[in-house]
Amino acid sequence: MTQPTYTVELKNNIVVAKISGDWNIHADIGYLTLLDETISRVRNDRWALFADLRGWRVSEEVINFKHNRIIQLARKNQQIECWLVDDIDQGKHIQHHIDNAGVPLHKFNHREDAEKLLVENEFYL
């Protein structure tokens, strides 16, 4: 098992998240708290989210934990969300949150492709 790690920072109205390792409920709650705090600093302007999920592994216990079905981040003014993933199915257990908010979600295997889409939407890492 690999220790779960996460970082969340704000760069030019882009919330930049990096999560990896074998995820557990404690890490999930800590990450979501930090993510929400960071989003709160930018949600009054147009903003984007870029998340690097490579190396992130989620157990069935975490996937089925009740907060993953009910938690909803405030996504006011979010324009786009880009995920850097190991495979296209990664994160599908949380994808409904972005879909329900009406935010366009794009998954990529290469960082330069994600950055290109962000630039096309006037967001610069």
Folded structure, characterized:
With 125 residues, this protein is of the alpha/beta class. Helix content is 33%, strand content 30%. It has helices at 25-40, 60-63, 67-70, 95-101, 111-120; strands at 5-11, 14-23, 47-52, 56-58, 78-84, 105-108. Strands 1, 2, 3, 4, 5 and 6 form a six-stranded mixed beta sheet that branches.
Task: Give the helix/strand layout.
Layout: E1 5-11, E2 14-23, H1 25-40, E3 47-52, E4 56-58, H2 60-63, H3 67-70, E5 78-84, H4 95-101, E6 105-108, H5 111-120
Parallel strand pairs: 2-3, 2-4, 3-5, 5-6
Antiparallel strand pairs: 1-2
Keywords for this structure?
alpha/beta, six-stranded mixed β-sheet, 5 helices, 6 strands, 33% helix, globular
User: SSE string, helix = H, strand = E?
Assistant: EEHEEHHEHEH
- Mean model confidence by pLDDT: 94
Q: Which structural class do you get from the secondary structure elements?
A: alpha/beta
Q: Which residues sit in consecutive blocks of at least 5 with pLDDT less than 50?
A: none
Helical segment tally?
Answer: 5
Report, as a whole number of angstroms, the end-to-end distance.
Answer: 31 Å
What's the number of extended β-strand segments?
6
How large, in whole angstroms, is the Cα Rg?
14 Å
Give the fraction of residues assigned to helices.
25-40%
Share of residues in strands: 25-35%
Looking at the structure, what is the overall shape? globular
User: Biggest sheet, in brief?
Assistant: 6 strands, mixed
